[in-house]
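[audit] Reproducing an earlier prediction to check determinism. Same input, same settings, fresh worker. If the tokens differ from the archived copy the diff job will pick it up downstream; this log only records the rerun itself.
[audit] input (351 residues):
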Amino acid sequence: MIVWVNGTFGAGKTSACRELLELLPDSTLYDPELVGHALCELLPAQRLAEVTDFQDLPAWRRLVPEVAAALLSEVPGTLVVPMTLLREEYRDEIFGALAARGLPVHHFVLHAEETILRARIAAGEEVPGDPVASERVRRWRFDHLPEYQAAREWLHRDAHVLDTAELTPRQVAETLAALVKEGTARCPIVRSSTTPGDTVAAAVLLFDEQDRVLLVDPVYKPAWEFPGGVVERGEAPTTAAVREAAEELGLRLEPGALRLLAVDWEPRTGDHRGGMRLVYDGGRLTAGQRAALRLPPDELRDWRFVTLGEAERLLSPGRYRRLAGALEARPTGTPRYLEAGLPAAQGVGGG
């Protein structure tokens, strides 16, 4: 189990987590900052110069859940994680990877108003015995307060928020321990398929009157998607596309109304499974159908209709190429065969 204690600098994460270790049996402190510091030692200077924060390194976001899983294989129990995580897409990526490993996450945000945060930062001795370094760290923490304010909307929607203004670190820890026991802060993470090999998946493209395509925003993935999912054992891909549209959108489609647009072979990349991806045309949605769309809150955050140009900013490169290929086939009615989103002769790696 993961207890992720979020919040900006000065909220009291580190102090509360140290106290929390005494209250949660078989708990271990896991600070992902150590992963960041290790990468800063290992990566060449020119790569580090390209980012302003080690969280911007894809390697950090990949290693954080890997290390968490490795630690729990050595010391089973609870990992207490005091880590500021203010970018929603990074939270999606990391928590999604934890979900794929079957690790439940309890997500908390320690909150205090900015005046209190500034007073706490100003009073802190950030680097004991080194006033120059302490001032540098304080200035860095002050500079990141606006980022927390900008992230409050999604943070306070996603996590259990605890105001620490009037609480001691011990009181904060006691409250967190009680909430963990109740399970009220457990994230409704959707665990990925446990199929070890490559998969077959089916997606359905839905359109509005302007021929914009509908995309959905998964709760624990960093990029947007088409409605769809993995074809279950013994299930026909068309049936899977209809089932996923019903589960994800509350939309009832007739299998006979779907038209195959593209078959795309997606190569395996790292931990990401590959396989065959079938893309269907589900037709245009009426105003009534659009008004009736319902998303499962534990899986999807939002939906929207987008142009192909807008989709490029939301989809992963491989999925964008797949969409472009499917849309090219739509006027002709002849399905396209793709590899990595491109005609077979041009296929490239990546998903």
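[audit] rerun output stored. Observation attached for the diff report: The chain has a mean pLDDT of 87.
[audit] end
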